[in-house]
Amino acid sequence: MTLRENELIDLLYESVIDAGRWRHALDEFRKYFGSFAAFPELAEAVEGRVDAACASFDRPESEANAMGAETLAQHVVRASRLRESFERLQAEALGLAAVADRLSAGVIVLDGQGQSLYINDAARKFIARKDGLTLDRGGRLRAVKRAADRALALLQDKALEEGPGGLAQVPREGDMRPYAIMVAPLPASSGGLGASGESRAGILMLIHDPDSAEKLSARVLAEIFGLTPKTAELVAALAVGEELKDYADRAGLSLHTVRFHLKSTFLRMGVRSQAQLVRLAVRAAADLHF
Fold first, then answer.
1. Mean per-residue pLDDT for 169-177?
2. Is the pLDDT of residue 134 over 90?
């Protein structure tokens, strides 16, 4: 192996997790070797093709170069497979992040050292309010009130030691109801490695804001349950706690008309009470929120 070939191998493995550098590394291989008829695996890896049986490349002139090319072919194939695995993991992580960002609950994931791995949009929104929650420099969740902060820290420490975790209440400023926070350990493989090389458990934290009553989409309810737009608006209003009379006044309808539409909606949605109607609507809209 020549010095340049060893440099190419180093460049290849250093570029596995960076798409731009990976393309540059493959371009450097093409410039250095040109093409390889005798090494279809190299052609497959460099050109990114699954089937390289028809690749037409020229054999390097000397036997020494041929031996170097064969070794390099193995490295390119190995690095390419690492790159493919990384891209799959990256796609999975992006997909999971997109799902978590659609949740109304805050989600925070810590590694085995207590450092933040992921914070979803809802959690960032809660923290930005500065009404009871904050983050330390490592991304660990803290409570503004001292007693709540101690309780929250204890739950996180126990979960890091693969304890059961638990629930905590975090008081808020003003007359808002406290945040409810669940802390739970994640599988040991999710938290990375400790100082001695052992696998460490991570932490999952879920934040619930009992005062966060997001308006349900009447359009979504109409599509889920086959309701008319007006009936869906009524269900959406009831689901966020609006009274029948208030809705009737706002919609410019008589209370008698609204009650008639409500009974028709009971039949359409297969429920017998307003409470069942609201529960069904909230659960469906929460699962299919977009």
1. 90
2. yes
Place of tokens 């209003």: 237
Tokens 């009871």 belong to residue: 132
Q: Do domains 102-208 and 218-287 have the same CATH topology?
A: no
* pLDDT above 90 as % of the chain: 34
Angle separating helix axes 40-47 and 19-33, nearest 10 degrees: 140
Task: Just give the CATH number of 102-208.
Answer: 3.30.450.20
| 88 touches 53 (CB < 8 A) | no
The structural domains of the chain, with segments of one domain joined by +, span 3-99, 102-208, 218-287
Q: Report the pLDDT value the prediction gives residue 169, as an integer from 0 to 100.
A: 93
- How confident is the model at residue 43, as a pLDDT? 57
What angle separates helix 3-14 from helix 63-100, to the nearest 10 degrees? 10
SS3 198: coil
Short-list 138, 123, 128, 207, CA closest to 168: 207
